[in-house]
Write a structure and sequence with these properties.
This protein is an alpha+beta fold. The chain has helices spanning 54-66, 90-93; strands at 4-7, 13-24, 27-38, 42-47, 71-76, 82-87. The N and C termini lie far apart (45 Å).
Length: 108
């Protein structure tokens, strides 16, 4: 697939078909192509179904969790156009020292 850089009003850099590679334990396990990446800080997923579904939201949250990007926009061009802004803070992405320990124990 090819990457194209687009320029929009106010000179925001936007890349369509941005590729992300996923790894675990130092090994490549897969890749994902984002619909749009704005200023390397906002991942945009475009949908053409009738409405936004929980599965679309879950998909974008998984992509945010697997990358350094914290903000995602989910846009549907269905019967009634919709959008959602999703956030996944990089602090939440860090692996706990003891994965069996509850995350609630480390709060406040």
């Amino acid at each position: 697939m090819r990457r194209r850089s687009l320029r929009r009003s106010k000179r925001r850099a936007c890349t369509s078909i941005a590729r992300f590679r996923f790894g675990f334990g130092g090994k490549k396990i897969g890749q994902y192509f984002a619909d749009l990446l704005v200023e390397r800080t906002v991942m945009v997923e475009l949908k053409a179904g009738r409405t936004l579904e929980k599965a679309h939201e879950a998909q974008l949250l998984h992509y945010l969790r697997a990358t350094e990007i914290e903000v995602g926009l989910l846009i549907s061009f269905g019967i009634h156009p919709q959008f959602q802004r999703l956030l996944f803070d990089n602090e939440r992405k860090k692996i706990r020292e003891n994965p069996r320990e509850s995350g609630a124990n480390s709060c406040g």
